[in-house]
Design goal:
This protein is mainly alpha-helical. It has a single domain, classed as Rhopdopsin 7-helix transmembrane proteins. A two-stranded antiparallel ribbon has the order 1-2. Helix 3 packs across helix 12. It is globular, with a radius of gyration of 21 Å. GO terms for molecular function: G protein-coupled receptor activity; olfactory receptor activity. It is a multi-pass membrane protein. Belongs to the G-protein coupled receptor 1 family. One of its GO terms (cellular component) is plasma membrane. It comes from Chrysemys picta bellii (Western painted turtle).
Length: 304
């Protein structure tokens, strides 16, 4: 009986969809996705290479930026192949195991990115509130420990998800509305009671992204409090200017997530693409434009 069940589980297939369109337009739709993929991989790889090879960039802000770049690279590599598979090769089928692996990595990387954005908010608070002790507080070993805690917390929360989904029987059409597998969508395909999964999914979301967003908000309240106490208007603007890149990254990450639950099906698909594909594309561009030091290094690398 167990062997029969294992065979059934292995034979389960999900159908990925995405933006509603005719087959003859798929090639045109794939062009922007290819463009985003190439720019995301190239942009984040360039940032990682420059930060690693240039000792002058071995500062807390750039180390956190490297963490963000690694996470964004992971998200691009995890999601884009199945998207391009649909629009370039009309390959819509995905096995249960491959789908569960994608669920694990997408949600793991999203939760790690949420933690990295929190660490970057803490970095900006220390830099503005206590600039003289900034390098002493955020030492490389301490940053490494903070990064490890962020990864472990996300891992502990996300690891049960594939196992919770694997125990289900799937007896529906198994047609997913996105071009990749997400926990909530796969869960809804089950013909079993999903109460435990729903509660756990909500708990992880609140404990990770809910808590992180609240702590980020508190960090910025403290930053504003510190900035407003600065007598010089010029110094005040300079301090706030160091937060612009991080604020852009926060808006790109959290805005689609907040809007997803209150949208039409088409808008949900579109916001799903934006939440997973746009941050890896835009983050390296924004940070390169806003950081004079990093921008100069990138220009010098390509001129050589």
């Amino acid at each position: 009986m167990s062997a029969v069940n294992d065979t059934k589980l292995k034979s389960i297939k999900f159908l990925l969809t995405g933006l509603p369109s005719h087959r003859d337009t798929h090639l045109w739709i794939s062009i922007p996705f290819c463009f985003m993929y190439v720019i995301s991989i190239t942009g984040n790889s360039v940032i990682l290479f420059i930060v690693k090879t240039d000792p002058s960039l071995h500062e807390p802000m750039y180390i956190f930026l490297s963490m963000l770049a690694v996470t964004d690279l992971g998200l691009s590599i995890t999601t884009i192949p199945t998207i391009l598979g649909i629009y370039l090769f009309n390959s819509r089928e995905i096995s249960l195991d491959a789908c569960l692996a994608q669920v694990f990595f997408i949600h793991l990387l999203q939760y790690i990115e949420s933690s990295v954005l929190l660490l970057m908010a803490f970095d900006r608070f220390i830099a503005i509130h206590n600039p003289l002790r900034y390098a002493f507080i955020l030492t490389p070993p301490r940053i490494a420990k903070m990064g490890l805690v962020a990864v472990l917390r996300a891992m502990v929360l996300i690891l049960p998800l594939p196992f919770l989904l694997k125990r289900f029987q799937y007896c529906r059409a198994n047609v997913l509305s996105h071009s990749y597998c997400l926990f909530q969508e796969v869960m809804k395909m089950a013909c079993s009671d999903i109460t435990v999964n729903s509660i756990y999914g909500l708990f992880t979301k609140l404990f990770q992204m809910g808590l992180d967003s609240m702590l980020i908000f508190l960090s910025y309240v403290m930053i504003l409090k510190t900035v407003l106490s600065i007598a010089s208007h010029k110094e005040c603007l300079r301090a706030l200017n160091t937060c612009v890149s991080h604020l852009c990254a926060l808006l790109l990450f959290y805005t689609p997530e907040i809007s997803l639950s209150k949208s039409s099906p088409f808008l949900q698909i579109l916001l799903g693409y934006i939440s997973l594909l746009v941050p890896p594309l835009i983050n390296p561009i924004v940070y390169s434009l806003k950081s004079k030091h990093l921008r100069a290094k990138i220009i010098r690398m390509f001129i050589k």
